[in-house]
Amino acid sequence: MTAIATDAGVLALEAAPAQGRALAPATTDTPDRRLAQAADCAARPVLALSDIALTFGGVAALRDIDLAVAPGEICAVIGPNGAGKSSLLNVISGLYRPDRGQVWLGERAFAQVPTAELAAHGVARTFQNLAIFKGLSVFDNVLMGLAHRVRAGFLRQIIGSPLARRIEAENRAAAEDVIGFLHLGDVRERSAGSLPYGLQKRVELARALVARPTLLLLDEPFAGVTLSEKLELSEHVRNARDLYGATIVLIEHDIGVVMGLSDRIAVLDNGSKIADGTPDEVKADQAVIDAYLGVAHQDVTELAV
Question: pTM of this prediction?
Answer without folding.
Answer: 0.78
